[in-house]
Design brief:
The chain has about 475 residues and is mainly beta. It has one domain. Helix content is about 10%, strand content about 40%. The protein contains six helices and 38 strands. The strands form ten sheets. Strands 17, 18, 21, 22, 23, 27 and 28 form a seven-stranded mixed sheet that branches. Strands 12, 13, 14, 15 and 16 form a five-stranded antiparallel sheet that branches. Strand 24 and strand 25 form a beta hairpin. The longest helix has 11 residues. It is globular and about 65 Å long. The two termini are about 20 Å apart. It catalyses: lutein = (3R,3'S)-zeaxanthin; an all-trans-retinyl ester + H2O = 11-cis-retinol + a fatty acid + H(+); all-trans-retinyl hexadecanoate + H2O = 11-cis-retinol + hexadecanoate + H(+).
């Protein structure tokens, strides 16, 4: 899966340039043939505004949320986009400055205010961003654009109009939830959030939203879910709560300044039963990794098998996603990425039947994996993974599977966006059983996250299509051309 192309001309820099709303949908340029069964709309979210007047945003995850909509009909594609009218966006546009602190950009007080009002503005508490640039998913009959704070934003998926800002704190005891929930076939949405526990500790909550009810019900970046269990990976990267609560009032910092990494902690793997909701009180632990996306989780013969897109070590990968680094010339992009953690696709296996007397023994007996789980004398079960893919500075990220048929089941194929030194320049397919890989890639083309769509008559797991919009060198989102597609 090693990249076949270099990018000396720097056409990838177009990915990180500001664009504008469209007044109407535009026809897309299509290469190949769109299968007739592919009908409906594909929604995508991402950063689209990287500066306000003379004030720049500094981190990739600070760009203001832009929703993209691709409509498929009669073998053709139209493209439309509109910024989500969040408080962060509207206030920034109105005041022509960064008003709400984002992930890596601090919002300074209004310079037009007098010294007393500026002083007191530091003591009003943390104003959390609602910049919902990560994902969009259904809750009941409605759709919400989300990030990983407590705010979600209801949108009209036909017109892309912003309808309503919702504070999850009004419904459940959480400070934030992941932007990557699991959705069951009946429409039930499961997500995981965090809240303050006893003694100012951090607790995790599973949030279940029934398909017929729009309120959020409490039942107990991404998590795993099999038929009967939840898997949550706790990496060494944490938010220092004291820094977080004091940052805006004392130091004038951003979210990035509040993250700390503890190499000695390693990685903790938490397991909980779905029904009835019950935490499995066994300490599963492994070496330090960074992790943002689960691929799939399933149960087999008394074991939970889960596959992750991981980054080796305890360092925070987001430290390498500053816009200044990503917009640099190609040699500088590569130099910075060489210092970053190494990406790997990993498989871990957790035994559900654990006995303390089995110290020093590999508890995993599945014949098709080299992943191990070993009981230590202190009762900790140490997990070693099987590496399913590893390429120097070549990441397999934003994974997708045949979700409808194989979510929570033993599966074979995963699809991902290939990052070449953090630049998305290919679409990848991985056989998780044989470790065979396939790559789509063209010069000066930068795809988005893939999505698997099975053919109506498809029998095999990978009998389908991977529609992916491609940003090519002659196309830029700020002009009036349509998107480019490959089939």
């Amino acid at each position: 899966m090693v990249s076949r192309f270099e990018h000396p001309a720097g056409s990838y820099k177009k990915i990180f340039e500001t664009c504008e709303d469209l007044a109407e949908a535009l026809p897309a340029t299509v290469t190949g043939r769109i299968p007739p069964f592919l009908k409906g709309s594909l929604l995508r979210l991402g950063p689209g505004l990287f500066e306000i007047g003379d004030e720049p945003f500094y981190h990739l995850f600070d760009g203001q949320a832009l929703m993209h909509k691709f409509d498929f009909k009669n073998g053709q594609v139209t493209y439309f986009r509109k910024f989500i009218r969040t408080d962060a966006y509207v206030r920034a546009i109105t005041e022509k400055r960064v008003v709400i602190t984002e992930f890596g950009t601090f919002a300074y007080p209004d310079p037009c205010k007098n010294i007393f009002s500026r002083f007191f503005s530091y003591f009003k508490g943390v104003e959390v961003t609602d910049n919902c640039l990560v994902n969009v998913y259904p809750i009941g009959e409605d759709y919400y654009a989300v990030t990983e704070t407590n705010y979600i934003t209801k949108v009209n998926v036909e017109t892309l109009e912003t309808l309503k800002k919702v504070d999850m704190c009004n419904y459940v005891n959480i400070n934030g939830v992941t932007a990557h929930p699991h959705i069951e076939k009946d429409g039930t949405v499961y997500n995981i959030g965090n809240c303050m526990g006893k003694g100012a500790s951090l607790a995790y909550n599973i949030v279940r939203t029934p398909p017929t009810q729009k309120d959020f019900l409490l039942c107990l970046s991404s998590f795993g879910m099999s038929e009967n269990y939840f898997v949550f990976v706790e990496t060494p990267v944490k938010i220092n709560l004291l820094k977080f609560l004091s940052a805006w009032s004392i130091r004038g910092s951003n979210y990035m300044d509040c993250f700390e990494s503890n190499e000695s902690q390693g990685t903790l793997f938490h397991i909980a039963k779905k029904d009835p909701g019950e935490y499995i009180d066994v300490k599963f632990k492994g070496a330090a990794i960074g992790m943002f996306h689960h691929i799939n989780t399933f149960e087999d013969q008394g074991f939970i098998v889960f596959d992750l897109c991981s980054w080796k070590g305890f360092e925070f990968v987001y430290n390498y996603l500053w816009l200044a680094n990503l917009r640099a010339n190609w040699d500088e992009v590569k130099k910075a990425a060489m210092m970053a953690p190494q990406p790997e696709v990993r498989r871990y296996v957790i035994p559900l039947d654990v006995h303390k007397e089995e110290q020093g023994k590999n508890l995993v007996s599945l014949p098709y994996t080299t992943a191990t789980a070993t009981m230590h004398s202190d009762g900790t079960v140490w997990l070693e993974p099987e590496v399913l893919f590893s390429g120097p500075r070549q990441a397999f990220e934003f994974p997708q599977i045949n979700y409808q048929k194989f979510s929570g089941k033993n599966y074979t194929y995963a699809y991902g966006l290939g990052l070449n030194h953090f630049i998305p320049d290919r679409i990848c397919k991985l056989n998780v059983k044989t470790k065979e890989t396939w790559v789509w890639q063209e010069p000066d083309s930068y795809p988005s996250e893939p999505l698997f769509v099975q053919t109506p008559e498809g029998v095999d797991e990978d009998d389908g299509r991977i529609p992916a919009n491609i940003l090519v060198e002659h196309f830029h989102p700020s002009n009036n051309e349509g998107a480019n597609w490959r089939f």
